[in-house]
Amino acid sequence: MAWRSSGYTNAALVANLAENGLITSDRVKKAMLGVDRAHYAPTSAYEDSPQPIGFSATISAPHMHAAAAESLLPYLHSRAKVLDIGSGSGYLTHVLANLVEPHGQVVGVDHIQQLVDLANGNMAKSADGKEILSCGRVKFIKADGRLGWKEEGPYDAIHVGAAATEAHPTLVDQLRAPGR
C-alpha cells in the first residue's frame, strides 16, 4: 500500500515500505536506508509519490525505486556493472551503488545536462556519496539513453527509469548474459 508508506524521516519511509511489503529484501532495505532521499527530492522527500526535480522531470515514488531494486537484486553482486537510464536526480543510482559495493560500478545516463549536474551535486551532499563519486564507482553521463553507454559495458543490469515506448536493441546488446 504505497500511499501509506510515507514517513517523516528516511528511516520511517523505508520502514513503512518494508512493513507494507514493498521492500522484502534486507539488502534493498539497507541500501535505501543508506541514501537520504532528502538529498535528491527538493520537496516532500519522504512522501511515497513522485516529486518534481525540475526540467520537466520527476523523481519516482520510493515504492517504484524499491520495486526496481528488488527486481534487479539477483544481478547486483559486489562486482556488478549497472546502467541506470534516466538517472534524473541520482537517487536510484546511489541506491544501486550501495547494492553493488564494494567493487561494483553504476553509470547514470540522462539526456539533460542540468540533471547530470544535479545528480552529481546531490550525491556529493553525503560523505558516502562523495567517496563513491571520487573513486569512480558512480559516474553520471549526458547521453541519449536509447543508445545506452557502451563505453562501460557490458552490464549485468540495466534499469530504464525514463519513459520508453519500446525495448531498444542497442541496450540489449550492452547487457551481459545472463543479465536483466
Write up this protein.
This protein has 180 residues and is an alpha/beta fold. Helix content is 34%, strand content 15%. It has seven helices and six strands, in the order ααββαβαβααββα. The protein has helices at 10-19, 26-33, 62-72, 91-99, 113-123, 127-134, 169-173; strands spanning 51-54, 57-59, 81-85, 105-110, 138-142, 157-160.
Summed up:
It contains seven helices and six strands. It is of the alpha/beta class and 180 residues long. It starts with 9 loop residues before the first helix and ends in a 7-residue tail after the last helix.
Which class best fits the helix and strand makeup? alpha/beta
The total count of strands amounts to: 6
Helicity, as a percent range: 25-40%
Rg measurement, Å? 15 Å
- Subunit organisation of the chains: single chain
Mean pLDDT: 94
The sequence of SSEs as H and E is: HHEEHEHEHHEEH
Q: Give unreliable regions as ranges.
A: none
In DSSP terms, counting alpha (H) and pi (I) runs of 4 or more, how many helices? 7
Give a short account of the largest sheet: 4 strands, parallel
- Placed side by side, the strands forming the largest sheet appear as 5-4-3-6
DSSP strand (E) fraction? Answer: 15-25%
Report the principal-axis shape. globular
N/C terminus separation: 26 Å
